[in-house]
Amino acid sequence: MGTRYGGLKQIDPVGPSGETLLDYAVFDAIRAGFGRAVFVIRREFEDAFRSSVTARYEGLIPFDCVFQSTGDVPGGCAVPAGRVRPWGTGHAVWCARAALGGPFAAINADDFYGAGSFSSLAAFLDKAQGARYALVGFRLADTLSEGGTVSRGVCRVNDGRLVSIAEEHGVGRADVGPGRRFSGQEIVSMNCWGFTPAFLPGLESALRAFLAAKSADPSAEFYLPAAVSGLISDGQATVEILPGGSAWFGITRREDRPQVAAAIDSLIRQGAYPARLFI
Q: Please, what is the Cα angle at 215 between 214 and 218, to 5 degrees?
């Protein structure tokens, strides 16, 4: 919804030819070998999304649009009257369940993960089986906003595998450094995941438990990292931490947009991306 941004940041151009951050993700996914894209959107945004974003992908990659709605919940689960706010990132992935026919990556539309992240996920998913998943990790110090504080999922990692994720709120540059709240070297989740189809039944069970406990809270959201952490703690999943190989950047507030555009321009000048992604 882009509450802090003040609009639909997912379709705001940041590239020199009007590209969005999502365009760069699709471009990187295609060249990493992903064969299809599924976009989870709200139905009221469909016309704007199709006309300004997905029209560019025609003939380049097959894609589907699926809709996240508060009423799309597992059978037998109640939705409180008047609930308007979406249920969160975990629910968004669950809403895409019918469009997912095999191993898949799950990402945010307003983050830049870089070509290395998609290459790592593609290589992992090419061999992954069962309840073995992956997360591309980034250094906390590399994911902070110049425009203010952010929330970050700080990972606890053991021997290259994810143990748990703690959601930390109000993290700013003043909190990072020697003797401060964080060293900056912590691995954080920016929602760049790789899953097999075995993830979906566990996700549904976690969603049912969430709705039973918190559906009456109008601000409660079912976060994807929390769902994965629950499966790990129950012994139902393992998650390998993969290197991104690229710098992360993203848009939280409107003040972030100039820095993101400058970072894109730098990558183009380095030859990492063409000046026009889709011709």
A: 95
Look-up: residue for tokens 């999502």? 22
Instruction: Specify the CATH number for 9-269; select among 3.90.550.10, 3.40.50.720, 1.10.3720.10, 2.40.30.10.
Output: 3.90.550.10
Q: Please, what is the Cα angle at 211 between 88 and 171, to 5 degrees?
A: 40
Q: Which pLDDT does position 54 carry in this prediction?
A: 85
Q: Give the amino acid at 111.
A: D
**Could you tell me which of 200, 240, 206, 242 has the C-alpha nearest to residue 223?**
206
Band (96; pLDDT cuts 50, 70, 90): very high
- Nearest CA to 243 out of 144, 137, 110 is that of 137
CA distance 229 to 235: 10
